[in-house]
Design goal:
About 0% of the residues lie in helices and about 20% in strands. The protein is built from no helices and 13 strands.
């Protein structure tokens, strides 16, 4: 053992427990080490807070009425930055608009929408360089599917499927090429 009295197992005490100055202590006191012995002491009270302040840091959020020094309320406001998991925008965007990152914020517009069933584009889509849509005129009756299809077309009700299909067509209606 490293001390004059070492106990390995349970210990039951009856009677008083004394500190280094032969004091038995009283209810509510605790033994505190002095480095060379122990002494009975009262635990320090919890203390009091005189000021509480808030900071949004780099999140883009701010707090009003900060710090609070006696009592009061603080209000959180601002726009949570993209880097912190937010959208970086204060607007709700376009109904059914598809969110995308424009290099600064998440944004959307009416040119690309999704209603839960249908993905809609306002213009032709390009998928791996393949045009899917209505070609140059955007005519509802035209169908374009392929690379550079209907790219000069001014007619209507034309259907072009495949590489350069009806690319040079500039007039007429009801043309079909694949």
């Amino acid at each position: 053992p490293f001390a004059t009295l070492s106990v390995n197992g349970s210990l039951a005490l009856t009677g008083a427990l004394y500190d280094a100055s032969s004091s038995a202590g009283v209810s509510g006191k605790v033994l505190e080490s002095t480095g060379t012995g122990v002494k009975w002491t009262t635990l320090a009270a919890g203390g009091s807070v005189t000021s509480v302040g808030f900071s949004g840091g780099t999140t883009g959020l701010t707090f009003s009425n900060s710090p609070i020094t006696t009592s009061g309320t603080t209000t959180l406001s601002g726009t949570l930055a993209v880097a912190n998991g937010g959208t970086g925008t204060t607007t709700g965007g376009v109904t059914n608009g598809v969110e995308y990152y424009n290099g600064t914020n998440l944004t959307n517009n009416a040119n690309l929408t999704f209603n839960g069933t249908t993905l809609t584009t306002a213009n032709d889509a390009s998928i791996h360089g393949v045009t899917v849509g209505q070609g140059l005129t955007g005519n509802f009756y035209d169908t374009a599917l392929g690379y550079s299809v209907l790219s000069h077309n001014t007619g209507n009700a034309d259907t072009a499927v495949g590489y350069l299909a009806l690319q040079s067509n500039t007039s007429g209606s009801g043309n079909t090429a694949n």
